[in-house]
Design brief:
Layout (H helix, E strand, L loop, with lengths): L1 H9 L5 H13 L5
Amino acid sequence: MLRQLENELKNNEISAEDAWKRCLEIRDGKKSK
């Protein structure tokens, strides 16, 4: 899952802020939309 997030960042498909929020959600075990 984190590797997908990393790829999205590299491709500029999501902002760093969005990636950080998703990382926190993953860490906390919450489902992102």
